Amino acid sequence: MSAWVPPDALGRRVSCDTHCGTVRYVGSVARTAGIWLGVEWDDPQRGKHDGSYEGTQYFKCRHPKGGSFIRPNKANFGVDFLTAVKDRYGLNDKQDVHYGTENTLVFGTKTVEFVGMDSVAEQQRQQLNKLVDISVRECAVSHAGETEEISRTCANMRHINLSKNLISSWETVIAIASQIRNLETLNVSENKMKFSSTSSSISGAFSNLKILALNQTEITWTEVLLCAQEWPALEELYLSSNNITVLERPDNVLQTLKLLDLSDNQLLDGNQLHLIAHLPRLEQLILRNTGISSIHFPDAGFGCKTKMFPSLKRLAINDNKISQWSSINELDKLPSLRSLQCNNNPFMDTEKNPETMIQLIIAKISQLEVLNNCEILPAERRGAELDYRKIFGNDWLKAGGHWNPEKNKPSEEFLAAHPRYQSLCLKYGAPEEGELKGRQPLTLKNQLLTLTIKCPEKPEQKPVEKKLPESMTIQKVKGLLYRLLKIPGSELKLSYESSKLEGKEVELDNDLKPLQFYSIESGDCVLVRW
């Protein structure tokens, strides 16, 4: 006897053993009896062919070996939402229900949070109606079930994880969400769904939705904008790994958005960002591994702020192809930027010393407070800016810079490469001639000093021995100690004791002076206080 096949089987998501796929064909296959399902598998390793059998093409696959035929009785077409909830939380007649602590009930082995516990005797429907935060991840949910059944039994849910199920279309998500009036968080990631390609009537299903995850759903940006008409209060949108390459300007949608995650989508180029640059409330933008190679805000000149991304505070551009420092210069144009993640980009390979690399980024972006998840302390910023002013001082002079403000006219080329240099000179004063002449590269010929680092007021902090170049400035020593000792606070006070003059302590009070200025020798002890 042949297994039953749903009338809408074509295009449905199914599972077989541990594999998931999409039904691309329903019908007979030459030289065989009965009905077959042609399935395109998510994992091509599960398949055998491209949808053809003995010279006949029954369906098409993206991968040449991504498809195979299975009998209908081998395919799991999934269950309705409510059945999955009951199974996941043990809400059926066979399992015992008893009360936990305060606002929880225990169903079998599951403890579930409830809103209020007014009566002692809760019926199953009342129990379901108290659920607030549920997860039916990997529960083979494929459809909403009977009309209004969800709204009658568990309409108070606010946070739902529907990821990695067998949902075939966005319409199914709407059918479920429309019955949950206070839905705030929804995760439907890892469901390969069909989305509407035309604007449809507003259902009101997502009127209170604040957080939505659509990772790995194969949604396009055009489809995002069509669906977004139903998300009037959305604040966080996660769209990673969707093969989104081209963006469009969001007109009258996504205006409440505070966080947008586009990671692992290979965008056509950095100019795509201009199309989403005027989202008024966007505070966090995640662009990890999006293939961008440059960032540019053409509406603002050197030292000016862009009108793009007016509220953006946190930006992640790590794991990309940014090779030029000019893109880092551009980030100083963002008026609200406070936090940046930029690891694993080619421009970071241009500087061998990671300490110097960090200092350059800090100096180039004036308002940055957090870099690669590390707080930038005020003393670290001051040191970075002083060093930057000194490192590029000779270039500034060659380009037309001058200590006399009336003669200070650096070239456009220099200003393009160092947009903040002029403002740093105003902040700290132009670098003195003696500073620039005394600057030496840190090469092997510089003598290394073997020093003991101690924290006299923190006896639990063990002394550390370090080898430092004698030409290293006090500010760079402080920067090293911040990372080495993980010392909190914004001010460090350094001094040293000579191994030859016991009991005498000399204060290291000038951040711009090298260690050799203070006649420090190998064997001396640097004392750290804060």
From TrEMBL:
Residues 27-71 form the CAP-Gly domain. It comes from the Eukaryota. InterPro entries: CAP-Gly_dom_sf (IPR036859), CAP-Gly_domain (IPR000938), Leu-rich_rpt (IPR001611), LRR_dom_sf (IPR032675), Ubiquitin-like_dom (IPR000626), Ubiquitin-like_domsf (IPR029071), Ubl_TBCE (IPR044079). GO terms for cellular component: cytoskeleton. Residues 449-528 form the Ubiquitin-like domain. It is found in: Cytoplasm, Cytoskeleton. One of its GO terms (biological process) is cytoskeleton organization. Keywords: Acetylation, Chaperone, Cytoplasm, Cytoskeleton, Leucine-rich repeat, Phosphoprotein, Repeat. Tubulin-folding protein; involved in the second step of the tubulin folding pathway and in the regulation of tubulin heterodimer dissociation. Required for correct organization of microtubule cytoskeleton and mitotic splindle, and maintenance of the neuronal microtubule network. Supercomplex made of cofactors A to E. Cofactors A and D function by capturing and stabilizing tubulin in a quasi-native conformation. Cofactor E binds to the cofactor D-tubulin complex; interaction with cofactor C then causes the release of tubulin polypeptides that are committed to the native state. Cofactors B and E can form a heterodimer which binds to alpha-tubulin and enhances their ability to dissociate tubulin heterodimers. Interacts with TBCD. Belongs to the TBCE family. PANTHER family: CILIA- AND FLAGELLA-ASSOCIATED PROTEIN 410-RELATED (PTHR18849:SF0), LEUCINE RICH REPEAT PROTEIN (PTHR18849). This is Tubulin-specific chaperone E. The lineage of its organism: Eukaryota, Metazoa, Chordata, Craniata, Vertebrata. The gene is Tbce.
